[in-house]
Inverse folding.
């Protein structure tokens, strides 16, 4: 069906392009003859493609489309588009985190705090007190900010993989769908942040051996302050569920960080800390083990599976890909369970060696 | 469309500067989109098994298997094929 209408459209496009590019050419100082040469070559190749319609040359045709269409829009549009589309993503992703973190805070927090109080009665009620609030603030720039940052790449990546649709669909039909997705992503964040935290601690602990020095930049003042800071940290930790319910390890962090100087336990603390941190908290805490297992599994699931799939397809379907191709713009892409629906517009199909142009296409796929 | 081939050729010949070639591609994009909007009025429906979906850089890629295309005139069956679609909203901006 390389119909006259299709080729008419092509010719129209060629002429349109040539005429509209003419000014550009002249302004750059490129002669009209070059323009004519361009048009001649282009049309010649078009005719070859259309006339011979061999698989190779045919496949060249859609590739030619693929070249300009995708990259060019990337050049032009995303500057505006990214702002529009990426900000909502961030907005969607961030608010949930604060929502959920406080939820889990009380559990570990309440259990942890009393333990810290035992040596130092100075710290009053943990969350309400102004001291803690202050020390929280003090600590945050030093400590947590490095922890806050690591999750962000995860946030940016995960949702793009998992939630992608939401960014687009959000404003449209699938607000519902966004919500079910979010818990999953949040879990990722929490777990990932938890892991980060642990890793960071491990890094800080191991090289120096003496934690107070490591903590120094963040907390360096008096021991009292350190204690408070440590409490704040632990509450911070709990707030962000960085400890993720591994009470044992978080206690160790606390004792370790805070009471080194006071109780002279650096060695023991180090050992105890390192063991759980490196070996996955097997002894102290069953929960983190699950978390780590989940962490380990899920990245690998996503990455490996995706890669494998893509690789397989890119390799396995290479031929069909080049033979049958649809290039279009999507209006929307929605998914219900495994059923995908998409509406495309203004596209070109190259199927069975025929070119088909369409203004609108609807697709229903089951995955 | 062979345009990129042509441009490649001319750029490597030295008859065209890459910048101008890009300009041509940009213009081609506009013209093609406009032509599709104004000169084509056909609808297609696709049913297929979705082998892979991918959404990267605002571009959807679907790899389909056992696809059935229907438009006003004909129906085409394709064993496996690929759809590449960029965002219509981004294009119109």
């Amino acid at each position: 069906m390389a119909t006259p209408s299709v080729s008419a459209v092509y010719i129209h496009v060629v002429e349109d392009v040539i005429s509209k590019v003419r000014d550009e050419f002249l302004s750059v100082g490129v002669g009209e003859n070059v323009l004519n040469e361009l048009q001649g070559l282009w049309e010649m190749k078009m005719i070859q493609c259309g006339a011979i319609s061999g698989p190779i040359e045919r496949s060249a045709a859609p590739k030619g489309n693929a070249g300009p269409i995708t990259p060019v829009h990337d050049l032009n549009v995303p500057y505006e588009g990214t702002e529009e589309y990426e900000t909502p993503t961030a907005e969607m992703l961030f608010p949930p985190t604060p929502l959920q973190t406080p939820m889990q805070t009380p559990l570990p927090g309440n259990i942890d705090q009393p333990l810290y109080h035992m040596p130092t009665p100075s710290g009053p009620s943990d969350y309400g007190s102004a001291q803690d609030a202050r020390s929280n603030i003090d600590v945050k720039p030093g400590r947590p900010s490095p922890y806050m940052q690591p999750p962000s790449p995860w946030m940016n990546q995960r949702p793009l993989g998992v939630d992608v649709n939401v960014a687009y669909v959000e404003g449209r039909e699938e607000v519902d769908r966004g919500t079910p997705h979010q818990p999953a992503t949040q879990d990722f964040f929490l777990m990932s942040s938890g892991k980060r935290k642990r890793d960071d601690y491990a890094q800080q602990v191991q090289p120096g051996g003496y934690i107070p020095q490591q903590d120094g930049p963040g907390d360096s003042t008096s021991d009292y302050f350190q204690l408070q800071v440590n409490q704040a940290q632990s509450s911070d930790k709990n707030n962000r569920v960085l400890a993720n319910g591994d009470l044992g390890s978080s206690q160790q962090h606390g004792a370790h960080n805070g009471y080194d100087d006071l109780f002279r336990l650096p060695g023991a603390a180090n050992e105890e800390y390192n063991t759980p941190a490196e070996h996955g908290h097997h002894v102290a805490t069953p929960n983190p083990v699950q978390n780590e297992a989940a962490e380990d599994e899920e990245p690998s699931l996503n990455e490996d599976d995706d890669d494998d799939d893509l690789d397989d397809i890119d390799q396995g379907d290479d031929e069909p890909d080049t033979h049958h191709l649809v290039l279009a713009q999507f209006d929307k892409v929605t998914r219900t369970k495994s059923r995908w629906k998409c509406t495309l517009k203004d596209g070109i199909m190259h199927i069975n060696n025929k070119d088909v142009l369409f203004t609108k296409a609807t697709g229903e796929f089951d995955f | 469309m062979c345009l990129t081939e042509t441009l490649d050729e001319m750029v490597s010949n030295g008859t065209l500067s890459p910048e101008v070639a890009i300009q041509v591609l940009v213009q081609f994009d506009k013209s093609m989109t406009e032509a599709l909007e104004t000169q084509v009025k056909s609808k297609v429906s696709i049913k297929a098994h979705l082998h892979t979906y991918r959404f990267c850089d605002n571009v959807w890629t679907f790899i389909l298997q056992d696809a059935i295309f229907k438009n006003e005139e004909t129906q085409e069956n394709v064993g496996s094929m690929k759809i590449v679609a960029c965002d219509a909203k981004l294009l119109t901006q």
Observations:
- Chain B has a mean pLDDT of 81.
- The first helix of chain B runs from residue 3 to 13.
